[in-house]
Amino acid sequence: xxxxxxxTLILLLLASSLALAQKRKRSTGATRQxxxxxxxPTPGFRAEAMAVAEQIKVFSRFLxxxxxxxxxxxxxxxxxxxxxxxxxxxxxxxxxxxxxxEKIGEMRGGLDKVVTLFQNNSRLQLQSSLLISAAEDAxxxxxxxxxxxxxxxxxxxxxxxxxxxxxxxxxx
Length: 172
Description:
Layout: H1 2-22, H2 46-81, H3 87-119, H4 125-146, H5 150-171
Helix pairs in contact: 1-2, 1-3, 2-3, 2-5, 3-4, 4-5
């Protein structure tokens, strides 16, 4: 009974965290001035740098939640194999796995748009090849998640974030 309750709580956390991962916070109050001066990208690459920065934010937010989500999914798989999970919870776990893979696919789609933006600028071919590599890693993460290899998918997602950070550093 306790294990079923724990799995149910984990699945509810998963469902709510997936919904929150895509929401953007909007501030209604006055914004604060930052005291630390940040370097600005060269004017010609400002739009590209902002696009990469947005992708870093998306992947970072997802990775923050992904550890707990994947742990919960793996725990539910273990309980299912041992026969400790009811049919309804087993079905919910399968749906949650699909949602994770779909979310990775959505993030990959956003990354593909950034790749296209870079490919259309002849001065960004080096960065474009790095972004293509990041997009390939995102595709591998999606495939791994679809296959139920969440640990491997997480490693690919970390690689994507690292490559996006490298691209942003090169633009500044």
